[in-house]
Design brief:
about 350 residues; alpha/beta; Spore Coat Polysaccharide Biosynthesis Protein SpsA, Chain A; 7-stranded mixed beta sheet; 3-stranded antiparallel beta sheet; 12 strands; about 35% helix; globular; binds guanosine-5'-diphosphate; binds manganese (II) ion
């Protein structure tokens, strides 16, 4: 069923041919995919920088459409400056009120106490950050502009792409039955997800039928699922299959999380929620590490660890600055889990 392992190179057939001319009409096979960015109007300058970078490194060849989402209407300036640097379809969407803001049934006193408790943690006292994490965890793939697409590539303001991406990651994932692609994995702050794992275990007790065979539990738990080791995929970069999020297992899971109120009583990030979802409800070979994609979101960057990837991509990053084998990275654990042995150049 699975034709590739979680750490192989993307095969040549997914690369654009040497004589490829981006200005000609695209008659090559394409995926049902979109680029997506959630942003505030105040993120405009940084949004433009990110879009320009990924258009230059990837999307001017592939011309996948873009969707921008915001809980406030985008300004004319935002739309004009973004559209100016994208030579394909762009849509700007408004997030429905109830998909974004804290619901009335949340006990605000308890939520305020939770924010107070997390004052010392990054975004610990922010309500808007919680709105964002909850939206990214369980709602973005149901937005009306996203519904017609299967695949998405999440891009954030002011991220960097250090290498040419001359291959189509969506088609590669589609052909190989992947559901989730990542470039950076690390440990989460425990205090932001104090009860997330208990809640997850309660869900699994009630719905054991959703646990996938051959899942990647061994990556996020060192004792067979008793404790969560805090490893997660960094979700500011994601290439993934929204039909996986829309399917019964993940839907039931995030409905259960939502009912517990943990998005507001604690500060559950969309990164651990997506990661746990991918780990529990997919086969481990459906989760893919894209070594080829040099990526940076401050303060961390992934620079291709294989010399071949770094050279092929004409990467500008310094491989010795890569986060891959930093002490705070979980890539070593991922390697061990999938049976990959890294040989330094
Ligand atoms: P960090 O990466 O965890 O430091 O968080 P960011 O501030 O980068 O936010 C993550 C993503 O959500 C980015 O794409 C932001 O532009 C977006 N975002 C964060 N807060 C808001 C918000 O209140 N409204 C909107 N529309 N987007 C937000
Ligand atoms: Mn960010």
């Amino acid at each position: 069923k699975f034709t590739s392992n979680p750490h192989e190179y993307v095969p040549d057939k997914y690369y654009i041919p040497p004589n490829f001319n981006a200005s000609k009409p695209l008659n090559v096979r394409r995926a049902n995919a979109t680029m997506v960015m959630l942003a505030r109007n105040s993120d405009l300058d940084n949004a433009v920088r990110s879009v320009r970078r990924i258009q230059d490194r990837f999307n001017s060849n592939f011309r996948y459409p873009w969707v921008f989402l915001n809980e406030e209407p985008f300004t004319d300036e935002f739309k004009q400056r973004i559209s100016n640097i994208i030579d394909g379809e762009v849509q700007f969407g408004l997030i429905p009120h109830d998909d974004w803001f804290q619901p009335d049934w949340i006990d605000e006193e308890k939520a305020a106490a939770g924010r107070k408790k997390l004052e010392h943690v990054i975004y610990g006292s922010s309500v808007s950050y919680r709105n964002m994490c909850r939206f990214n965890s369980r709602t973005f793939y149901r937005h009306e502009l996203m519904q017609k697409y299967k695949w998405y590539w999440r891009v954030e303001p002011d991220v960097h792409f250090h290498c040419d991406i001359d291959f189509d990651p969506f088609l590669y994932m589609e052909d190989n039955n992947k559901v989730y692609g990542f470039t950076i994995t690390m440990y989460e702050y425990r205090s932001t997800i104090e009860t997330l794992w208990e809640t997850t275990k309660d869900f699994l007790k009630q719905h054991p039928e959703h646990l996938a065979e051959g899942n990647a539990m061994g990556f996020i738990s060192d004792d067979g699922g008793e404790e969560y080791n805090l490893c997660h995929f960094w979700s500011n970069f994601e290439i993934a299959d929204m039909d996986f999020w829309r399917a019964p297992a993940y839907t039931a899971y995030v409905d259960y999380l939502e009912a517990s109120g943990g998005f507001y009583y604690e500060r559950w990030g969309d990164a651990p929620v997506h990661s746990i979802g991918a780990v529990l409800f997919a086969h481990k070979d459906q989760i893919h590490f894209f070594d080829e994609i040099g990526y940076e979101h401050a303060p961390y960057q992934h620079c291709p660890r294989e010399k071949k990837s770094w050279e092929n991509g004409r990467c500008g990053c310094n491989p010795s600055r890569s986060f891959d084998y930093d002490g705070y990275s979980c890539l070593k654990k991922w390697d061990a889990f999938v049976g990959y042995q890294h040989k330094p150049w």
